């Protein structure tokens, strides 16, 4: 009796100790959540190969940003700043959301975002649930969205005969004990099959346990009326049988367990092939209920992404909600800026009926402004949040060509890369949707005469219909050629005390100053070089003017 009391006391102490540790962990998690609110995550929390898995598995129909555009806007840096999610599910969901701008003009999550921002107690309670999906293993849930699943081998049905033989030998052994020795043969065969099957369970080692957690988290979130979602509730109900079946499978890398109890349990499962039958049953159920899994993934992911957006808006940087207008050649921005540049100069721009051509010297801010525009256009149609005082735009598909590199390993020159990218943009003009084309120079990789001629033809073509083109160039000749189709803007600089000063402010009209040779002078290049450069520049400018605007041909009177 005394032993029973001692054991009971030990069990009670262990239980109380576990409860105390869990409470301390919850308090620690809560403190961290409060400290992180409104701030970006640390940069070591991003594994983009894993984060992108959900986006690669499930693709939308309207628009997906091209690899060129993702590179142009430094997407990984942008995502690192935008992402404030708690779970890996939410992080994968937000990633997919950001690379697939929507054509929906209504932000259906706005009410939820406001609720999560205003109700701190509710938000933190949700985040404490989401932390359960913060392990890196949760990235593997998205692997269950693949089209091909584990299929039964052709000889699988023979396993039923195998079991019939085993049960028959066991029953008969009650009368003929000698038959117990015969069990060694099917047991050995089944042990081999059991160990072979560990390779099958290995595919689900991380995904199925995390899926079970996802179902449990969804069940908890659904208890709150503000988070109720009928499809998610139905999906949780459909996944109950899966959770029951999954308990019969030990998801480990294989081999015998050191614990005696688990060792014996493995022997029993091996003899009756319990795990073999269950893994194929679970695989078939996962395939049949894939839509329910996606529903729960998106339910939890959407809630977490909404919290992330609320945290972003609660940060130090100024944001606004976009306004969407009907399809027309119009974008209105007021005090728009780049969120990744500290102290970025704000600019305003109104696009109406014409596209935009921007000139300016190097380092004046052209490329930064182009990135600012396309980033905010993307954020407007993904998280309905812009870094500006005002942002108005139609629904667009965003395409860009800002940063192009030589692909030496594939043997492609800079110019050939440009040709391919421009061809892909030209193909979009033929589609029915309205596009935003952001271009930093056109055909920098070829000679001046052909570059200007090709650029003019391409920019006129891209500008067709309601498409909006915003392009920067050093070729001021394009300004005269495109004045009927493009409004002109420029960035400029001043030279004070032999130093170059940029205000990075966008100004209307055509650039009238140049600084390339002046920079050579400031860098103390020999006078012979700068003098000759100025003379050649003057003569070349005159020659170009005559070629582009030739004098009228004189008529001869006969």
Describe the protein in words.
The protein is an alpha/beta fold and 558 residues long. It has a domain at 323-513: Rossmann fold (3-Layer(aba) Sandwich). The protein has 23 helices and twelve strands. Strands 6-7-8-4-9-12 form a six-stranded mixed beta sheet, sandwiched between helices. The chain has a four-stranded mixed beta sheet with strand order 1-5-2-3, covered by helices on one side. A two-stranded antiparallel ribbon has the order 10-11. A hairpin with a 2-residue loop joins strand 10 (493-496) and strand 11. Helix 6 (88-99) crosses helix 17 (290-313), helix 13 crosses helix 17 (290-313) and helix 22 packs antiparallel against helix 23. The protein is elongated, with a radius of gyration of 33 Å.
Subunit arrangement of the protein = single chain
**Count of helices?**
23
* Main sheet record: 6 strands, mixed
Uncertain parts: 253-258, 551-558
Distance between the ends: 136 Å
Number of strands: 12
The CATH homologous superfamily of the domain at 323-513 is called P-loop containing nucleotide triphosphate hydrolases
The overall average pLDDT, rounded, is 84
Note the beta-strand portion: 5-15%
Helix percentage? 40-55%
At the fold tier of CATH, the topology name of the domain at 323-513 is Rossmann fold
Overall, the morphology is elongated
């Amino acid at each position: 009796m005394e032993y029973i009391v001692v054991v009971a006391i030990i069990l009670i102490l262990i239980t109380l100790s576990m409860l105390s540790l869990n409470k301390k962990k919850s308090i620690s998690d809560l403190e961290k959540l409060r400290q992180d609110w409104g701030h970006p995550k640390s940069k070591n929390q991003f594994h983009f190969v894993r984060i992108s898995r959900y986006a690669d598995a499930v693709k939308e129909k309207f628009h997906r940003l091209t690899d060129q555009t993702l590179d142009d806007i430094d997407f990984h840096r942008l995502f690192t700043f935008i992402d404030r999610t708690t779970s890996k599910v939410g992080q994968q969901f937000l990633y997919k959301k950001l690379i697939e701008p929507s054509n929906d003009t209504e932000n259906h999550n706005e009410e939820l975002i406001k609720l999560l921002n205003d109700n701190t107690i509710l938000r933190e309670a949700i985040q404490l649930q989401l932390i359960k999906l913060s392990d890196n293993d949760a990235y593997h849930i998205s692997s269950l969205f693949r089209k091909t699943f584990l299929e039964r081998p052709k000889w699988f049905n023979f396993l039923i005969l195998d079991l019939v033989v085993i049960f028959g030998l066991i029953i008969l052994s009650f009368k003929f004990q000698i038959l117990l020795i015969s069990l060694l043969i099917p047991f050995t065969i089944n042990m081999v099959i059991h160990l072979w099957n560990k390779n099958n369970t290995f595919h689900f080692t991380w995904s199925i346990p995390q899926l079970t957690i996802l179902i449990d988290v969804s069940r908890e979130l659904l208890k709150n009326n503000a988070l109720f979602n009928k499809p998610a509730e139905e999906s949780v109900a459909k996944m109950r049988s899966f959770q029951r079946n999954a308990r019969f499978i030990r998801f480990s890398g294989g081999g015998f367990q050191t614990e005696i109890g688990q060792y014996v349990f493995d022997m029993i499962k091996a003899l009756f092939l319990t795990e073999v039958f269950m893994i194929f049953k679970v695989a078939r159920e996962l395939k049949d209920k894939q839509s329910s899994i996606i529903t729960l993934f998106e339910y939890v992911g959407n809630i977490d992404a909404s919290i992330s957006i609320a945290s972003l808006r609660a940060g130090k940087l100024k944001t606004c909600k976009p306004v969407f207008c009907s399809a027309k050649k119009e974008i209105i921005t007021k005090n728009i800026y780049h969120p990744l540049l500290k102290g970025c100069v704000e600019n305003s721009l109104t696009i109406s009926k014409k596209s935009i051509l921007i000139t300016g010297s190097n380092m004046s801010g052209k490329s930064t402004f182009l990135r600012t525009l396309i980033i905010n256009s993307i954020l407007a149609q993904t998280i309905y949040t812009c870094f500006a005082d005002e942002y108005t735009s139609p629904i667009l598909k965003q395409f860009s060509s800002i940063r192009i590199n030589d692909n030496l390993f594939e043997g492609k020159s800079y110019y050939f890369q440009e040709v391919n990218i421009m061809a892909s943009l030209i193909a979009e003009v033929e589609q029915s949707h309205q596009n935003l084309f952001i271009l930093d120079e056109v055909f920098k990789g070829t000679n001046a005469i052909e570059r200007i001629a090709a650029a003019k033809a391409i920019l006129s073509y891209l500008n067709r219909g309601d498409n909006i083109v915003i392009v920067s160039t050093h070729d001021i000749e394009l300004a005269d050629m495109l004045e009927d189709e493009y409004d002109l803007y420029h960035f400029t600089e001043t030279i004070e005390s032999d130093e170059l000063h940029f205000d990075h402010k966008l100004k209307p009209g055509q650039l009238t100053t140049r600084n390339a040779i002046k920079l050579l002078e400031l860098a103390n290049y020999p006078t012979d070089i700068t003098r000759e450069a100025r003379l050649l520049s003057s003569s070349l400018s005159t020659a170009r003017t005559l070629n582009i605007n030739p004098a009228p041909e004189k008529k001869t009177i006969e």
